[in-house]
Structures are given as C-alpha cells and as structure tokens.
Amino acid sequence: MSETTSKTDPSTPESQTGSTKGSEAEQPATFESLGVCPELCKACDVLQWKHPSRIQEETIPYALQGRDLIALAETGSGKTGAFAIPIIQKLLDAAPHRKLTWACVLAPTRELCVQIGQQFEGLGASINLTTATIVGGLDMVTQAMSLSKKPHIIVASPGRLVDHLENTKGFHLKTIKFLVMDEADRLLGMDFEDALNKIVQSCPRDRQTFLFSATMTNKVSQLQRASLTRPVKCEVARKFDVAKGLVQNYMFVPHKHKHAYLAALLAHYKLSTVMIFVDTCLNAQRMATTLRHLGHNCVCLHGKMTQTHRLGALNQFRAGTRSILVATDVAARGLDIPSVDVVINFDVPKNPEEYIHRVGRTARAGRTGRSVTLVTQYDIEPFQRIENKQGKKMDELSEVNEENAMSLQEKVLEALRSTQLEMREQEEDIKEALAGKKGGRGGKKRQHQMILQKLAQGSKKRR
C-alpha cells in the first residue's frame, strides 16, 4: 500500500490485487481467518459457503478495519457476501438491538435488490436482522410503512429511494454507517447519476462506503472520487475475464435458419438448464411463445413485464420448474441463478462488455458451464470484437450440425406461424381495449408496454 499516495489525494485508492496473503497463499482461507465472528461463520456454514471467495478474501479484512473499498470482480464472485458480512459484524459489535437503519445498499435492478435482501436475511437470520427492499413497481405506501420501522438494512434502486427521501415524511439516511453501491458501472450507465448524487449527499460523512463494479469506467472513477475517502482498491479479475470453468463456443448459422439451429441446440442440451439472450423485449416474448409451441418448458424475463411477473418467472427458473429462461440484458447482471448450465446468445451482444455479463450467468463460483453464440452473416463484426477483446478465438461447436437443424425446420416454421398468429390476435384485442385511451404524452409507449405486459400475462395463463 502507498500511504503517501492516499495522503496526497484522499480519494486515490491503494491497490490490492491478491497479494495480501503472501506465503500463506497455499493454505485455503476460512471466514474465521479473515476475522469473521463465530455467529457469522456459523451463518456462512448454514448457507454452504465453505470457504471465502477471492473477492471476499481481499475485501473483508479491510472492511472490518473500517476502510472504504473499491472492488472490481467478475459476476458471480461472491460480492454480496463481501459487503454483507462486515456490515452485519459491525452491527453486532455496535448496536444489535437498537432500532436504527445501519446500512443502505444500492443496486441497478429490482431483481438484484431482492436477491441482495435475501442474502442479508440469510446471513442475519439468527440475530433478527431486519431488511427493507425498496424498488419501483411496488406500492409506495407499503414501502413507507416498512421504512418507518427503521430496518437495519435498506436495499434499494436509486430512483425509488430518492422518491422516498423527497416524499416520505420522517424518512432519512442520517443514521447509516455504511453505503454500498453494487454494480456501480451499470448504475451509472442507466442514468442514475443524479439520484446517486442526491443519496450520497443525504448520507452522513462519517460512514464507510463500498463501491463494487465489474469494470472501472471514467464515471465510476468520478463517483469514487466524490464519495469515498482513502479507499483500498481490491481487484481479482481483469476487465474482460470470463470464469475459468466456462467453455465458449460459437455456431456460424444462416440467418433464415437461426431458429432451427436453436431448436437443435435445445434438443442437444435437453437435460440442462439454459438461458437464451435476445436483443429486445418483444423478441423475448416471441421467442418464449415459439419455444412453448415447440414443447419446451420455458419462461421469459424482460424489462416491460410487471414486477410480479418478473419475479414469478425468475423464481420458477430458480426452483427448476422451468428449465429455459429467455431474457433480455435486464437479466444479464448480478442475478444469482446458481444452476445455469448453458448460456445461448441467440442475438450477438452489441459490445464485448455485455457478452461478459451474459456468459457470467454460467460457470459461477467455481462451477463449470458453457456458452454458445449463434453468429449469422450479419454478426461477424461484433463477434470478432468480442474475440479481440478477450485476446483469443472461440471454438466452433461441433456437436450440433446442419443436418440436426434442418430435420427440425418444418416443425420450427409451424411454431413460428402459430406464434405470429397468436400474438397478432392478442395485440389486436389489446389495441381495441385501449382505443378509448388515446392521447396524452407517451401514449404509444404506454400502449406498447401494456401490450407486452398483457402478452406476458396471457402466456403465463396458458402455462
């Protein structure tokens, strides 16, 4: 560490990149060896966290020393435990029985907020830890009642938290001792910058701040300088790393037969859990409907679904009652779905960063997994950018070939025709119902969103 650097600029991080263990690197660390208290060591054991992950090894000791942190780590690396464990331990040391809000955790999506809240509840089950998850799409009054009870931990999306700071009487963040910004690069990429600034200004200065991010962008650096004091930088993954257990493949397919090749892939991986990524909400809905016509057990997840339907779809996939999840990039970051075997990029991601986030759904926490990217004649340039960023070529998947795909072509075309007819009929019904509600700002956008929501609801009923 360079104390002179941090004294010159209080916001300049001291770098730690895995060197803190020295000669003890051969010995697997334990939570106890990191300074975690017996109550939380037991909680980790109950959650089957046998050993700390690399990011937990690097961050927990500094967090327990009271330092601010910038942590760069791959998705699925145990980031939630890295900040939740020291937060709960500090609460146990200080005021476990007092009614006060101890920490505020910010995350970019509703699903990630719910997931983080669940992990806090799991770690704090034996000490009666209280949490409140504050996200858009749910009732403000109910959330205000939860906040009035002064939960120990608030997990929130920035926009909805600012709504409560401005409109909920008596609510404030003056007592918090910890502020966490998870997936900071994505928070800033989703135009939450103004909301983050308001939240930071609402927090006391004598707090610890943890900033977790997959990448170190210019905006993340600016946020770090504005909100952290003498932070320690912990980095366990390069910008374009993929998990060690991930096998990356591609298939070069004609655009007009793309669905047939996907059907052949799913037949090959019929005993696996699969996530399929597409580029738009409407395409996600179409894909899920088509796959159901082909007899597959699937759900979809996209940003135009209601909160209830999104969580319902996610829970079905997590529980194993649905083996295929069709998703847009709203599901590509941060979600803990531990049993994904295969990620299929039906649409090639627009940039290498999104590719990394997508394939991070598999091969998590030391497990193995596979990704398959379908590359058409129109996708060569973005696909080559992905390979160039990683500095290596992917292998072509040999297990599925043209003969496999063409044997399913007729069945696939029939499923696509049925999907087109079904969605057209439902869209017409919905448009007729909305005919008397035209006008006003954003009318077309609201109509499009309602159509997608109704289609999702209709698909759920048919399942």
TrEMBL record:
Any GO CC annotation of this UniProt entry: cytosol
Gene3D superfamilies attached to this UniProt entry: P-loop containing nucleotide triphosphate hydrolases
Q: Name one GO molecular function term.
A: RNA helicase activity
Annotated keywords: ATP-binding, Helicase, Hydrolase, Nucleotide-binding, Nucleus, RNA-binding
Q: Where is the composition biased (Basic residues)?
A: 438-448
Where is this protein found?
Nucleus
Q: Where is the Helicase ATP-binding domain?
A: 60-234
Q: Which residues form the Helicase C-terminal domain?
A: 261-406
- The residue numbers the entry assigns to motif Q motif are 29-57
Q: Where is the DEAD-box RNA helicase Q domain?
A: 29-57
Indicate whether Magnesium appears among the record's keywords: no
Q: Where is this region: Disordered?
A: 1-27, 432-463
CDD domains in the cross-refs: DEADc_DDX47, SF2_C_DEAD
Q: Name the domain of life this protein comes from.
A: Eukaryota
Give the Polar residues compositional bias ranges. 1-22
> PANTHER family attached here?
ATP-DEPENDENT RNA HELICASE RHLE-RELATED, RNA HELICASE
Family classification: Belongs to the DEAD box helicase family. DDX47/RRP3 subfamily.
Protein name as it appears in the record: Putative ATP-dependent RNA helicase ddx47
Taxonomic path: Eukaryota, Sar, Alveolata, Perkinsozoa, Perkinsea
What gene name is given for the protein in this entry?
Answer: DDX47_2
